[in-house]
UniProtKB/TrEMBL annotation:
Keyword Mitochondrion among record annotations: no
InterPro entries, sorted: Glyas_Bleomycin-R_OHBP_Dase, Glyas_Fos-R_dOase_dom, VOC_core
Keyword Oxidoreductase: yes
SUPFAM superfamilies tied to this protein: Glyoxalase/Bleomycin resistance protein/Dihydroxybiphenyl dioxygenase
GO function terms (MF aspect): dioxygenase activity
Organism: Pseudogracilibacillus auburnensis
Listed name of the protein: Catechol 2,3-dioxygenase
Lineage of the organism: Bacteria, Bacillati, Bacillota, Bacilli, Bacillales
Amino acid sequence: MRKFHEKPNLYLGQISIKVTNIEKSLAFYQKIIGFQIMAQNEREVTLSADGVTPLLTIVQPNEVHPKENRTTGLYHFALLLPTRADLASFLRHAVDKKITIGASDHLVSEAIYLDDPDGNGIEVYCDRPASDWIWTNGEVEMTTNPLDSESLFAENDAGWNGLPKNTTMGHIHLHVADLEETENFYVSGLGYKVVSHYPGALFVSTGGYHHHVGLNIWKGTGIPAPDENSVGLNWYTIVFANEGVRKETVKNLKNIGTQVVKYQDHYMTTDPSGNKIQLVV
């Protein structure tokens, strides 16, 4: 399944989120989720599953304040585990630690949901084989059914030893203000394809994945972006196959009226709902 999260697909790299207490958050992400520290200073920690590839950065801004309600931004980021056995170990670990969780069967995947200490949403999931996904007229069938936890527990009785090294950032799901302009940005601008329409939401991907980005208006339409110092999404990265594809994407974004800023090794843009995106190769 890792093929959906490597070139030439348009896949996610690193995600950066804002927290109120870096020490408290770091303890959670190490002990509960099972990340390794890659780099650390007083107000920022970069985390990895394999010690080499950065997946998550947690940042404590100056004058940070708690998560705002009814704003755009992060719904959850999703860590894709290599196997169903790994998900079974994580579920047993979460239960043992008495963590409040949700659990769903989405047909294409099985997922466990939880929040970090600041309410940043996290999904830990495993995919079903792509050959089992059902496609109709270019859209993949997804739903939300209860997770069969008994079947999952029967998969594996091993303990949780932290995130497996092959863990990837499977997808991100965002609150947005308007689905129509959001679809235009992600499809006409970034080059994704819509693979599922869901009540109040749409899902986009490349390479035939069930989704690399989820986008919803479940908090309402026309909602504002959060304050710069609010807990929540800082930015996330989209990885391009090569410089040529990235330059073409920058051109497409500018053609639909989106501002793109060039930095030393990446471009930065913002979707219509204020979600910041780094474009990297």
